[in-house]
Amino acid sequence: MALLARRGKQATTQGAARAADRSKLFDEAFLKKLEYLHMVSRKVFTGNLRAERRTRKVGSGIEFADHRTYSRGDDFRYIDWNVYGRIDKLLLRLFEEEEDLHIYILIDCSDSMAIGNPLPKMHYAMQIGAALTYVGLANLDRVAILPFSDRILGRLPPARGKNRIFRVFEFLRSHEIGGQTRVAEAMKTFVAQNKRRGLAVLISDFYDPKGFEEGINTLRYNRFEPFVLQCYDMREAAPHLHGDLALVDCETGDAREVTVSRALLEAYQREHEKYCKDLESFCTARAVPFFRTHTQVPFDELVLRIFRTGGFLR
Q: Which pTM value belongs to this model?
């Protein structure tokens, strides 16, 4: 779906898009927005949602929760001897512990993500990914960054603490992109390499010729929690093209000579919208959080919408 239009000798090349400057992606203004987003997230995180991350375990913990009956093989150290002295029954003390949440930020860095003006989709996806990473790090979750295309292209290992965000910036600024969008293949590699289950935030245009279903299901069937963010450029949804053109697939290089008419553009727009709606319906039917956005929506507005809707903060 991500196409480059070429008329005569005028062309947009993959190389030019790939070389787009990333030095100003995470400037001072970006950092100020991150701190504001963190403040908003804390209001949610310290509320009822935080309780969902607590689990009752035998042994030391942050807060006493309950008792349960002693069973053969349990550790004698956690028997409540005061209770035993009163009722002559062996009970174990249970404590509430707060579980670490592992968050995996999976950012599509295939060639189709280099499309976009004035901001390439990949840069927009990196800003969203960095913002969600910062909130996760600040809330003491363990967050990893994994760029992908038809495979996993790299990995920034899980870390916690918001001071790690500068390492995230450096990683995203310097990471190369390229390859075709193959969500299923990349997710198979991801689940094989990451055994600790957690939230898998998938940021992509999802322009995969083989579809999106298998990739998302791979996460679900391996007990990860998919969180789907689809981003696109407005010119992809409603291209301003006309006349005789050569349309070039920016990932495969395949070209096709076409005569673009108004009827053809309208048919294309309907198919693009249908594809996006199919993705949304697929996620909704499986209780997978889904957000769709174009690159002209400020990244912080999208993140605030995610907070309001829920599903990311745990």
A: 0.80
Intervals of the chain under pLDDT 50: 5-19, 48-58
- How long is the chain? 314
CATH 3.40.50.410 fits 3-7+16-48+101-309, yes or no: yes
> What proportion of the chain, given as a percentage, has pLDDT over 70?
83
State how far the Cα of 278 lies from the Cα of 212, in Å rounded to an integer.
Answer: 10
What is the C-alpha to C-alpha distance for residues 126 and 122, in angstroms, rounded to an integer? 6
What are the structural domain ranges in the chain?
3-7+16-48+101-309, 54-98
The DSSP call for residue 74 is: -
Residue linked to tokens 């860095």: 109
Pairing of strands 54-58, 91-98: antiparallel
Which pLDDT value is given to residue 56?
44
Provide the residue type at 44 as one letter: V
Residue recorded with tokens 């310290």: 46
For 5-70, the DSSP string reads: EEBTTB---HHHHHT---TTTT-HHHHHHHHHHHHHHHHHHTTHHHHTTEEEEES--SEEEEEEE-
**Percentage helix, strand, coil, to 5, in the chain?**
40, 25, 35
pLDDT in tens, 119-164: 899 999 999 999 999 999 988 889 999 999 999 999 999 998 988 9
Whether residue 122 contacts residue 177, with contact meaning beta carbons closer than 8 Å, is answered with: yes
